[in-house]
Amino acid sequence: MYRNTLKFTLLLSLTILCFFNINAQTKVYLPLLETINLKKDFQYSSTRLLKNYIESANKYQVIMQDVNDSSISYNDQNASIITKAREINAMYYIIGSLNRLGENVIVNINLFETETGKKVWFDQLKAMSPDDLDPILQRIGQNIGTENKATTADDIYSVSNQETQQLKQKESNNNFGIGLCAMPLLMHGFDLNNNAQLSGLSLAWSFDARDYIFDIKPSWCFNSNYDMLSLALEMNKPLTKKSNTPFLGGGASLSRTSFGINGSNQSNYYSSTASGYGIMLLAGGGYIFNRTSSVSVRLSANLMQGFYDVKGYEYNSFGSYSSQKNYGLSTGILMRLEILFRR
């Protein structure tokens, strides 16, 4: 008997606690979102999804419009919505719409005070396709009624009417670019203190898969004596989800190093020519500016280590040459400044 009484008391206490917890939350009335140029299924599913995301923040108790309630109309200056909100003693009500234009979907959410009809919060976002509605509604639901807005977020999964904050499509983005490159070149067994600085051009095809960026990059760095040709395959990892972010990466390249240089020693003048090609490995990182924009800028620096020998001959002033000479492995630091254009 005592145990049954104790169980009943605990159950009653929990019920009362839950009751007061629910009623302590501010009530918000949520009619079905207006949908334009979208399938009818989107109206209920998107409204239900928004309700779940709002309530997950544990700030509001959302009362959603019954799907069969046809008394709510958007064409009578919201009078029917206000009436319903007052009937259920909701302090606020929400009016929202999903408007599809081509593949883009404009999401507009407004929070009003029931007593005065005053708009107290709003946000308007653009999805690149209906498939991107979920992260948008999640961001709105978490921030509604607060000082924050999804439009102020700067990661690549958020969207807004600002180009630098547009949501990426579910499929990855292709970017093509052109840039400048510079390379201090070092080789074992040969003094490159003079004329060691190479510069040139680079091209890029970049495949942005959100979590990783895959690049194919040909580059040509040279000066009057040296040439470095490289076709690199690289993978980079952005360190944040922001539009401006550092990244780490690396890869491998098929490269060719060659040079022709004149010199002198105590006995005579000489000239040297040498070349070699093979695989080089790259490791480094950099920084991306405006990754989510249609035009982005990328700075990078990679240590390049060759795994092939550069071999050639040294000619003396009499026109004869010594035996073949091995100038060692190619090593350098490849620096790039690139402008990328989204396809």
What can you tell me about this protein's structure?
It is a single chain. About 9% of the residues have low confidence. The chain folds into two domains: 141 residues, Rossmann fold; 170 residues, Porin. The protein is rod-shaped and about 105 Å long. It is an alpha+beta fold. The longest helix is centred in the first third of the chain and has 23 residues. The strands form two sheets. An eight-stranded antiparallel β-barrel has the order 7-8-9-10-11-12-13-14. Strands 1, 2, 3, 4, 5 and 6 form a six-stranded mixed sheet that branches. The protein starts with a helix and ends with a strand. It contains four helices and 14 strands. Helix content is 17%, strand content 50%.
Give a short summary of the structure.
Helices cover 17% and strands 50% of the residues. By secondary structure, the protein is an alpha+beta fold.
